[in-house]
């Protein structure tokens, strides 16, 4: 019974770490040289900005849903006409969900460190290719 309580406490602490990390990332929206700002649109046309990791593979620009909160990703799937600000320049793009073979290529070229995956709770990773319009 004591071992079960220890395991339960460890799970609760781990979930707390993941929630805290994901919340802080969402609130502070850290920007670095390897990020871009994607602008997605609701059905009513309301724009939403989100800082995401900028990835490249085979000369194409990608973004990845690397976290559990992913409303921006669902909006991009529903309305693939997005904007992205890359190196201070805003442009119009079409967000394209990648196939499984393309996903594997992009994943291999842009692996995430185990520590990052741990603190984010090992969310499934989905990619969008941003094709210029």
Overall radius of gyration: 17 Å
What do we call the CATH homologous superfamily? Answer: Electron Transport, Fmn-binding Protein, Chain A
Biggest sheet: strand arrangement: 1-2-3-6-5-4
Assign the CATH class. Answer: Mainly Beta
C-alpha end-to-end distance: 60 Å
By helix and strand content, what is the structural category?
alpha+beta
> Mind telling me which CATH architecture this is?
Roll
Principal-axis shape equals elongated
**Largest sheet at a glance?**
6 strands, antiparallel, barrel
Strand content: 25-35%
The DSSP helix count reads 4
Could you give the order of the helices and strands? HEEEHEEHHE
DSSP strand count: 6
Q: Spans with pLDDT under 50 lasting ≥5 residues?
A: none
> How many structural domains can be distinguished in the coordinates?
1
Q: What integer is the average pLDDT?
A: 90
Q: CATH topology, anyone?
A: Pnp Oxidase, Chain A
Q: Percent helix among the residues?
A: 25-40%
Descriptive overview:
By secondary structure, this protein is α+β, with helices and mostly antiparallel strands. The chain has one domain (2-132): Electron Transport, Fmn-binding Protein, Chain A (Pnp Oxidase, Chain A, Roll). Helices cover 38% and strands 35% of the residues. The protein has helices spanning 2-28, 71-78, 100-109, 114-119; strands at 35-41, 47-57, 60-65, 81-86, 89-97, 126-132. Strand 2 and strand 3 form a beta hairpin. It starts with a helix and ends with a strand.
